[in-house]
Amino acid sequence: GQTFSFTGDDDIWVFINNHLEIDLGGVHGAMTASVDLDTLGLTPGKTYSLDIFFAERHTFASNFMIETSIELIKDPCVKRRM
Questions:
Q1: Residue 74 contacts by C-beta under 8 Å, 6 or more apart in sequence?
Q2: Distances from the Cα of 50 to the Cαs of 27, 28, 47, 59, 62, in angstroms?
Q3: Could you tell me the end-to-end alpha-carbon distance of the chain, in angstroms, rounded to an integer?
Q4: pTM higher than 0.90, yes or no?
Q5: How far apart are CA 8 and CA 12, in angstroms?
Q6: For the chain: N or C, fewer Cβ within 10 A?
């Protein structure tokens, strides 16, 4: 019953366990995409990578929202990039 959803404008790519699961590339108005994590063959209780790449092309009226039911744990070895 776990899900991951994104709503926003412009480019977003979401990789779960190194597989592209959401691809909303390009300039566009707000769009929504969801992943039913139960369909990915992941084992409950195991740790998997979640990589999110986002590019905002508008200079105003930007929007970005992520909703998920999964527990997110920061990898202490990964440095935040800007």
A1: none
A2: 23, 24, 10, 27, 23
A3: 33
A4: no
A5: 8
A6: C
